[in-house]
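FYI - complex with 2-oxoglutaric acid, inputs then prediction.
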Amino acid sequence: MISTKIEQNNTLKLEGTTQDLEYWQEDVARDGFAVIKGAIPKERIEGYANDMMSWLEGFNLGFDRNDPSTVHKSKLPHITEKGMCLNYAVTHEDFVWKVRTEPGILSAFHKIYNDKKLIVSFDAVNFGFPNRTDIPPNDPWPHQDQDPKKPGFRVMQGLVNVFPNGPKDGGLIVCKGAHLLSEQFHKEMAWEEPIPAWNPEWYGFTDKGMQWLADKGCEWVKVCAEPGDLLIWDSRTPHYNLSPEGETPRFVIYTCYMPVSGATQEELVRKKKAFEDWNGTTHWPNCQVVGNNNAKRDGVDDPHNRFEPVKKPVLDEEGFKLTGIPYIKASA
Ligand SMILES: O=C(O)CCC(=O)C(=O)O
Ligand SMILES: [Fe+2]
């Protein structure tokens, strides 16, 4: 069992002076993660929480946000034990795109990359309900979301936290500072047979890998957050999530951006198709992997599958640029 430490003091305000911004940038440089407080204002994050609940209820399978007894896989779309909802075109719902284009989120990532020409991932949405017994337990799955063969900082992952997320409310667990040891780790552990990776930009830590990190004195910490906070972490930082154990669900919208200059034309063309087909990608904004909307229910295609969003996003020019489509050259 992995022990975790609760950490709440690594938070910094987004709004304010340049100096404030430099503080959270220092945090993430040193620790591999940071919390940007209040990136989305209270009234708007409450609206997104409502949208997320309505989206689940909108399947008309019996889920009712006010009745915890209706939290059951028979009454919900397919949600993995990690809380992930990967299908049903959820990644392109209007409320998800609204979160992606929130000014406080965009300005944070502009600052991170010192670049305004960014593209965004079409990532999963997390609907973590507490104490579920109808799906398998969510055992720790420590990993990094970056190819061990490609060292150095490459991408900053992000998630928008929707409900109060305290010590017992599940959420992101990170191995503090271990992003800086990533290259050394992969050199020294290269002898080990890796856990099969579902895509090259993923590496799972084995017991021996965990021991290596422990021997280096690395600590695992639970990141706590309030509604509207943006959590960021370097994709080299070892991490996983835990399910909530109290009464509050843990809902999250993943928001990961990178400069368009880091994507090839071929990747942008693939991303365009993913967008037009309402498909998801992983965290990686340059569209390494394209998902699909064929969720399974009891081993067969879910009869409630959806292949387009209920409410299609209306993107302004800045939002549309995040799809990468305007950066595709005519020859591509
Ligand atoms: O939900 C989280 O906090 C992390 C999710 C994650 O690590 C992943 O999807 O790769
Ligand atoms: Fe991850």
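Residues 1-20 have pLDDT under 50 and may be disordered. Residues 126, 145, 159, 171-172, 239, 241, 252 surround 2-oxoglutaric acid (ligand 1) (CB under 6 Å).
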